[in-house]
Specification:
CATH superfamily of the largest domain: P-loop containing nucleotide triphosphate hydrolases
Distance between the termini: 46 Å
Strand content: 15-25%
Structural class: alpha/beta
Number of strands: 14
Helix content: 40-55%
CATH topology of the largest domain: Rossmann fold
CATH architecture of the largest domain: 3-Layer(aba) Sandwich
Strand order of the largest sheet: 5-12-11-6-10-7-9-8
Low-confidence stretches: 55-59, 437-474
Length: 474
């Protein structure tokens, strides 16, 4: 993975990082609360050779003291001194346990020993440190006694042990920093794992690459899509409506040398935004002066008529069964867009769409309109969309952000390829809308309020933008 990939993981999965940080902070706080505090007491011991008679002897004695100090560090650590302290203080623990709580250090080229004892009780730590130093000096005196029963090396306590009033562990700041760092690492690891195992669509580029077709655009998430799906009509100056106009323009420029008149809009699965996309695209094309008809070819679950507030009982199935002529079944929406609803649900939708009567219907629509948009069923549950696309000029494949899986997109593309159908382009629906300001162009905030009555178009309540500053040229 490149640095840009890691940055994308952080940007898209930042909630994992925040959760990891909070978890690390909670763990550090719990540790501070549950772990008993520990205090240290330190005592310094000075090691010196017996007073010499001349300068040479004094120098040799000083070297001897430095050499002895290194040995004394090991002497204190080997447990002999610890056992004396345990007997003296009557402590209920082993010599090894006490030795692990006793740290002995010596500064290089000095004759000073530092004995540091850690204990949950600061007073007990001080007592143990004093007794350790006392036992050590006595041991040195016995071990270093010369022929005249005078020690050649002396060990003296510089000053009694002092106990720290603040516990050395746990320390709030280091623990909090460690917890936050561990939480950050854990959060990023979880985010990376989720990213690597997430097979849903995240970018329009992913969708286009999977299908090997041009990227026609995105449709932004509209929180009022259920009550007011026709955003091109209800809020024509919004950024959401602009996305559909961009889709309209890109579709018109796909393969300009070969004019495409019949376009199927479909998706791999259900609830991926194909119907909302096709009805808004139809309105956008009509308002651009294109003679367009919108056909509900989803004969299993027709939804175009409900979305536009039209009668859905008469439509495609009525024309194909001969119960109504095409002119009688066509409806006008707003005087600008012609619509052919799905009609009554038939028991054999695939056979109807693959019939010669359907081919005749498509030919009739081609002769009347500049563009024919067909809302088809999803590709994976049924074969209707693939059959229909094979009879048309191509399909626009709609995939939903964070919902459609990449494997479903591959399967949908394969279904179209098996019938030699062409994918004209892809659309990523319900994508997050960039937080940008479009106030200069009029894409200001808006509110939608549904009008009374079945299928009535929502009324636009626009928030008047602040006056733009004057633009001057050089």
């Amino acid at each position: 993975m490149t640095w840009s990939d890691h940055l994308r993981v952080v940007r898209e999965r930042w909630r994992f990082l925040v959760a990891g940080l909070l978890l690390g902070l909670v763990a550090a706080s719990a540790g501070l609360f549950l772990v008993p505090p520990k205090y240290t007491a330190e005592v310094a011991v000075y090691v010196s050779a017996r007073a010499p008679d001349d300068a040479v002897a004094a120098y040799q004695g000083n070297l001897l003291s430095e050499q002895k100090v290194k040995s004394y560090v090991q002497l204190i650590r080997n447990g002999t001194v610890a056992r004396d302290v345990l007997r003296e203080l009557e402590l209920p623990e082993s010599a090894d346990s006490l030795s692990r709580r006793t740290a002995v250090t010596s500064e290089p080229d000095t004759v000073l020993l530092s004995i540091e004892v850690t204990d949950p009780d600061p007073l007990q730590a001080r007592r143990i440190a004093d007794n350790t130093a006392s036992s050590f000096t006595g041991l040195v005196s016995r071990l270093e006694s010369g022929p005249r029963q005078q020690p050649d090396v002396l060990a003296e306590v510089v000053e009694p042990a002092t106990a720290e009033g603040v516990p050395v562990s746990p320390r709030p700041l280091p623990w909090a920093a460690t917890g936050l760092l561990a939480g950050l690492v854990l959060g990023y690891a979880a985010a990376l794992l989720r990213h690597l195992t997430d097979t849903s669509l995240r970018t329009p580029e992913q969708l286009a690459e999977l299908v090997d077709a041009p990227q026609l655009g995105i449709t932004a998430a509209n929180p009022q899509a259920d009550s007011a799906p026709l955003v091109v009509h209800a809020a024509p100056h919004s950024a959401c409506a602009e996305h559909y106009r961009t889709l309209r323009t890109n579709l018109q420029f796909v393969d300009v040398d070969s004019h495409r008149k019949t376009v199927v809009v479909t998706s791999p699965g259900i609830a991926e935004g194909k119907t909302t996309t096709v009805v808004n695209l139809g309105v956008a094309l009509a308002r651009a002066g294109v003679g367009v008809v919108l056909v509900d070819a989803d004969l299993r679950r027709p939804a175009v008529a409900d979305c536009l507030g039209l009668e859905g009982a008469v439509g495609v199935t009525s024309v194909l069964s001969g119960r109504a002529a095409l002119g009688e079944a066509l409806q006008s929406w707003g005087g600008e867009l012609d619509v052919l609803a799905g009609g009554q649900i038939a028991p054999n939708p695939s056979e109807l769409l693959h019939s010669s009567r359907m081919s005749e219907l498509l030919d009739a629509l081609r002769s009347r309109y500049e563009m024919v948009l067909l809302d088809a069923p999803p590709l994976l549950p049924v074969t209707d969309a693939a059959v229909l696309t094979a009879a048309c000029d191509g399909a626009v494949l709609v995939g939903r952000y964070k919902s459609t899986s990449r494997s479903d997109v591959r399967a949908a593309a394969a279904a179209l390829d098996r019938v030699s159908a062409r994918v004209l382009g892809t659309v990523l629906s319900v994508a997050p809308q960039p937080a940008r300001s479009y106030g200069y162009y009029g894409y200001h905030g808006y509110r939608l309020q549904e009008s009374p009555g079945r299928g009535a178009a929502p009324v636009l309540r626009a928030e008047r933008p602040e006056p733009a500053e004057a633009v001057t040229s050089d």
